[in-house]
Amino acid sequence: MTDQDGAESEDSAPIDSSFIALSEPSRRSLCRYAIRTETERVSREELVDYVAERAPEPVAADADRRTVALELHHVHLPKLANAGLIEYDRQRGVVHIDRATLAERLERVRATIADLQDV
């Protein structure tokens, strides 16, 4: 967001990246999974299973699962990591989840929406 002088405010970058990350249903679903899981580390393969099970069309074929895995690796997990919602270790294929940080970021998004509705 810009201030009166046209400069970016320091607070807008994290909230903007959160909105961008949460703009896609699969990424919102991944955040839901992350906030509800009891573990602090999740493998990319576990997330592939999670996404495949919830896909609108069955993801049974190996080619479909590879597509899900590629999209997670190259698109969805990096966007969530860039927004600070998760930490993604690309080399190991592991997602590190800090539920407190995730909950705080999601609460900031909710509060921002609530502020917009109060106008």
TrEMBL record:
Residue ranges annotated for the DUF7344 domain, each copy included: 20-95
Species of origin: Natrinema soli
Upper lineage: Archaea, Methanobacteriati, Methanobacteriota, Stenosarchaea group, Halobacteria
Protein name: DUF7344 domain-containing protein
InterPro entries for the chain: DUF7344, WH-like_DNA-bd_sf
